[in-house]
Amino acid sequence: MGNKAARFGRLAGMVLALAATGTAIGQQAGPVTVEDQTLPDNTGLNIPQNLQVFGNVDPNVRKATAIVNDNVLTRTDVDQRMALITAANNVELKPEDLDRLRLQVLRQLIDEVLQIQQAKTADITITDDELNQSFVRVAQNFNRTPEQFRTFLREQGSSERSMKRQIEGELAWQRYLRRRVEPFVNVGDEEVKAILDRLEAAKGTDEFHLNEIYLSATPDQTEQVYANARQLIAEIQKGQAPFGYFARNFSEASTRGVNGDLGWVRGAQLPPELGEAAAQMQVGQVVGPIAVPGGFSILYLVDKRQVLTANARDARLSLKQMTIKFPAGTTQAQASQRTASFASTITKLQGCGSVEKVAATINAEVVQNDAIRIRDLPAPLQDIMVNLQVGQATPPFGNPQEGVRTLVLCGRDDAAAAQLPGSEQIQSQLEQQRVNLRAQQALRDLRRDAIVEYR
Fold this sequence. Notes:
By secondary structure, this protein is of the alpha+beta class. The chain has helices spanning 3-6, 75-89, 95-121, 128-141, 146-155, 160-180, 189-201, 222-237, 243-250, 272-279, 332-346, 355-361, 379-387, 423-449, and strands at 66-68, 71-73, 206-216, 261-266, 286-292, 295-306, 316-324, 365-373, 397-399, 403-413, 452-454. A four-stranded antiparallel sheet has the order 4-3-6-5, sandwiched between helices. Strands 8-7-10-9 form a four-stranded antiparallel sheet. It is globular, with a radius of gyration of 26 Å. The model is unreliable at 1-43 and 57-62 (pLDDT under 50).
């Protein structure tokens, strides 16, 4: 939300009464147990269906230390990264959940080491200045100064070193891809033209801006991964960290490096399970776990629109906000009674011109904003404002601590119809998709060739 939108008094934290319409778990897929599943003929492994395992192998018993191509990962490395994740989510995990997280963090640290090592083969090194600059930006994302962020990390059992290690891995891998992968990705003019033609033909159809977390699951892990996905959704819905944070730390898809961002896609471009889910989602909603081939997906709908048509959420509004505050010590019953009275008062409004007069009768505050976009409002309010007529007001929203308020629509400037993207934009998007695919393949190759010794 921009500076002008901020005048409305932390709207993002004031929609508790409407939150149930904005975030929900949809399309719950039941857990599936697959017994005695024969491997496909094309695996090339020739694994017998009836086999005997000699020895007792339990991957959950591994100690969280490893040597990756002579680079040592210590238990401290794992513990500090785990501490950062749990602190950001503000959650206490059960012992079994901690064990699963520990193994997942270890795999991520191994990937980071491989990425940094591979970048060095291309003479790519991230300097201390670059690490410090990125560290400052991360601290700002946590609304802290660098020194405050260092103290926060130490208090949570993590460290500046752990944070910079993650930054180094991401920067090194991005730079490696730009140097060794992107130059060899080519997109032809005919491909671009074909996409532009399809966009023109798809004009008016629904398009979704989605973020995704993908968790792979073999048949014997289905129930466990499903339960992990449900727990992850519960943490996302607490709102302690953005969806992209969870995607970056937990997703196994190639989009993990871009916070799980799938960009703008149409339902037909998605697997049927995801396309059907997206069509039923509201902006700001989290849906899952959705059973897909090979595992489960969790979707977050950032925005939606119709191809090459004006997006109603880009309309700029002129608004007046009327707020009543509750005295300290107000009980829930008293707050509910006054909110009901406030709702009755709202029905007496006769357009924006009457807001100040009505507000004076109930000792309410009035704030005005003449240039806020619908998409700058919290998701539940966006759905209301899209259909609100000039002179109408929203239902009351808020909480006893910060007051209850309503927004009155004084005017609306609708956005112009969208235009076809340029050829260069289409080409750039195609190139990025192919870079992501090659990056995923490159990382698989590094894992396959790595010498990893667990201790």
